[in-house]
Amino acid sequence: MSGNGEPGPGTPGPIWTPDPAVAARSGLAAFQAWCGERTGRNRPDWQAFQRWSVASFRDFWALFLEWSGLAFGGDPSEVCRGDAVETATFFPDLRLSYAENLLRPLPGAGDGAEAVRFADEAGAREVLARGELRRRVRAVAEGLRRLGLREGDRVVAIARNDAAGNVACLAATSLGAAWSSVSPDIGTGAVLARFTQLDPTVLFCCGSYPYQGVPRPIGDRVRELAAAIPSLRQVVALDPDPATGEGTGRPVATLADLALTPADDPAPWPRFPFNQPLFILFSSGTTGAPKCIVHGAGGTLLQHVKEHRLHCDLRPGDRLFFATSAGWMMWNWQISCLASGITSVLRDGSATHPTDDALWRFAADEGVTAFGTSAAYVQYLRDAEIVPRERADLSRLRSIMSTGSVLPDSAYPWARDNVGRVPVQSISGGTDLVGCFVLGNPALPVWPGEAQCLGLGMDVAALGPDGLPVTDAPGELVCRTPFPSRPVRFWNDPEGKRFHDAYFAQNEGVWTHGDRVVLTGRGTARVLGRSDGVLNVRGIRIGPAEITTVATTFEQVRAAMALEQAAPREPGGSRLVLLLVMAPGAALDRPLVLRIKKELSTRCSMNHVPAVVAAVPDLPATFNGKVSERAARDVLNGRPVENLAALRNPESLDAIRAHPDLAVR
Amino acid sequence: MDEQYAKLRRIVIDWLDDQVHFGEAEDKVTDDEMSFLKNGILTSLGFVSLIVHLEDLLRIRIDRKALTRENFDGLGKIVRYVLAHPDFKGVP
Asked: B26 at the A interface (CB within 8 A)?
């Protein structure tokens, strides 16, 4: 193994190692050295540094806040009030503006530097300099203020992944409103289940979106949504189409209308408490409506800046592209890159239009230096035998990131041979913390299938069956000390019960994330998948209840259970299985299967459509009548059933085991 | 219609129904020679999934370099390509 990124000779070991000279110039190295000076003790060894950042997490976050140069007011001396992960509050006396920190001139990224580069599948392009983006944001914010948007309001958006969505988000949040967005391809039922919980006052929306060369209008969905949200006072069109927002029964303005009165650019940005709600994201639990996860401005910003500058080693001049939509937390993660002077590269539309290698041609055209993707897309490239380095000039590329679902070991040599000799950084965390627990590191090697390290300041552990930390063995991913991007709360959860149940009921006092992970003795992490009933389909998290609720609306269906089954041949390495117990006299025939699938695709999304729908005589249930997804999941995935003795109908598992459609090739 | 052509055609239609169109594939594919891509029947991503399915089911290997619009963009083209494949032994 050489020190310049050359791969090893095919034996087990790192597939990439950093060039020491490059690592020494990284943001991480600079911060480590600076911390050494400030604390009087150098910790050049990564693991020692990471351990210190956890053991002395207050010192770590205080020093990082100072080193990062973020703009804030108030008193940062109280870093974290309280020691319990569930209730601790970071920087209670500090005030800041998320938008100000993203848009102000920075060393190496002044007003003339590129902020956003956008293109869609049809070839539309837009490049915005930081100064121009700031002027637009301030003008739209002034328009929103005139319309009555106030601190604490919620705004929602059905947005494309374009510059207009970024402008709207930053304008609204600059006034202290909380932003929540979905992508335009999500079904009406799913949008309603999310946005109706928030009582928003403003809806931003596009009129259509392009996909595979065809404009897809969403006017009907917008009208249905507006009709279901009585609190809505204003619709703002994100595109100039005069039809956008028509028929909603609310006043409609365009972003351009809002920006007609230029704002006073030098005026100070209003600053809000560190934990002011900034983003409301949605996560699918195993039961009930999607959880509305409220993330604070300061925690989000601090976590993202740490990840971008230290773990991803990004800086002014870098161009970050992540294949995402406005409905995934990586959209929020990406927009924060502006706070580090990084150019945010956005693309809207199909990844395979107008050509099957469209994303790579786009990356080459836009000079992308950090390319973010998912295991499902990598699997597509491999199945299609596309060799990106033969299709596009990727010479500017410095790293590939992957998240959403587990990237298999074999994807690493594939990327080396077919994309380029750059590190493949597996990053994992999620919507719940709008950031990462495990991720990349410019100074460490890359081992196939593993994230390079644990996040700085993140007290991550894997708990074994006895509740004790384990190394080199599968365990439950937990975080044991407070971290700033812990959600502020759930929306509409005044007592914090749902919040507690989601993260703190399983292991009292520590954050239990719902992932199974192996933390290795060399400090890397191998994420194995979900440990709870939440489904992860091609990187999209789906609550089983979203599927079973639709399935049980069919009179032929008495009960339903949605599960994820490992399937190495499928994109993302797993497939969605829907088990049905039929009503007396009803049979599951092909027309019914197709009708259920059609209903799921319409009311939810194509990602909610199961690969397999199978009828079974009964669902496993405990003696008190609670259905046991866990037992069914164990059987589907060929694992021993841990709670067999607790089942009143263990024979139900035999039927699942023997069903021919449930065998994985 | 040749029996093998008809069987292969049914396999593709069934796959489209299972994966994308949920019972409406036959109505959408109004002509075996219509373009899947231009008419929104299938995306490039979907094409790859269909190819993997055909490979698994028919135990053939399809050269990805042959995945051109001329060879694959349409029901008739897909079926004729498979029928002409040297390893194709018939629909099981």
From this structure: no
